[in-house]
Hints:
By secondary structure, the protein is of the alpha/beta class. Helix content is 39%, strand content 18%. The chain has helices at 39-51, 57-64, 68-80, 101-113, 124-135, 143-149, 157-169, 183-189, 228-231, 272-275, 293-298, 301-306, 335-338, 341-346, 358-371, 380-390, 399-413, 422-433, and strands at 16-19, 22-25, 55-56, 84-89, 95-99, 122-123, 173-176, 197-201, 203-206, 209-212, 238-242, 245-248, 260-262, 267-269, 280-283, 308-312, 318-322, 326-331, 349-352.
Amino acid sequence: MDQTMVSSSGLRQPRMIELESGWAHEVLAELPTGAINPEAFADLALKLAYMEPTFTTERVVQALCLPLSIVTEIMEQLSKDQLVEVLGPDGPFNYRYMASVRGRERATRLLEISSYVGPAPVLLEEYVSSLEWQFARLPEVCPKRVTDSLSGLVLPEQAVEIIGLALSSSRSLFVHGPPGSGKTSVGRMIHAALEGHLWIPHCIGIEGHIIRLFDPRFHKRAPVVISREEASKVDQRWVCIERPFIVVGGELTLEDLDLSYDSGLGYHEAPLHLKANGGTFLLDDCGCQSVEPHRLLNRWIIPLEYQVDHLTLRTGQKLEVPFRQMLVISTNLDPDVVMTPALLRRMGYRIFLGAPTPEFYARIFANYAARCEVEVPDGLVDTLIRRYNAEQRPFSSCEPQDLIERSRHICSYREQPLELNEEILDLAWRSYFGER
């Protein structure tokens, strides 16, 4: 099925084919035209030739993730230009080559500019149009999916609905409240409500520059099962991944929000929020970073408004990229301290997670005890609640789990199965909070 379309902006929409396991990017039918010259692929092949004494057509196919038909054309042209020498056949449709003296001289000059050798780049325009095409076909977020993703938490119904609205609208979510109220857990759990897979390129190319996008640290390959015949139709420059989930905390700096250039490898590295496109980007503990929070977050005023970000190449050239992830920001600080009014206005949804009521505390305790498969004796939680009140200690949503886990450590130390009783919880309490 040919899915080629032309958008209102004039950009070519991605060519997609329908496989039994879903959609995939169709293998290149011919050398692409546009911002990347076809010679860029030949330059990659020539740099590969420089690095290996001899190599085969099949090796170029594997290294550059290009189809055999295009690699054959590239190698024929390099041979005509006397940049490589044909050593002879090495199987069906496979030849062995080596770089010529002239080819090694040219490869040396190319490597001085960029030492990148790997999957051939995808045009930035193709990446942008592909994301739009895929976003329009991803499963919609439904209330049940949101509820299921948050089933491990005890939250007010209104908070769950607000989270669902943020997810279904693909708007950002700002979560604030005291420490231990479940903000981080919310940010981590809601990602499960996002269904579907994405195809992203190994790297993006723009006017001779390479931007590495696929990152095995953050991108998990999706289990796509296809036949050998179908595999021959798939453009190997693209990778099918699960929708990404990226978490950053106090280590985030302003520099992390722009392109970084590795002079040794010869390519730019995409910032984390670009790698998070199509998934969830959680900025946890906002305000703990070395840079002032309003300076950090003001960097996203324009992206939140227009769903695009502007990055700078090492040459100073600006480029526009999609800003299309579920951005979740959590903080213990007052929103007026963390954000400017201009940024708060652009945040999609906001929720406050405060201290739980005694009833919610009891439900949280019971839920976590059930997950640990341990019985809670009658009246035990009431005893805990009275102790909170007697010590004028505020309730915290994280403390039932912490106290049960502390009880687990006590029982393990005593070489006995996990048990909850007043004596064990009293020791857990004293070792957790200390004496007053």
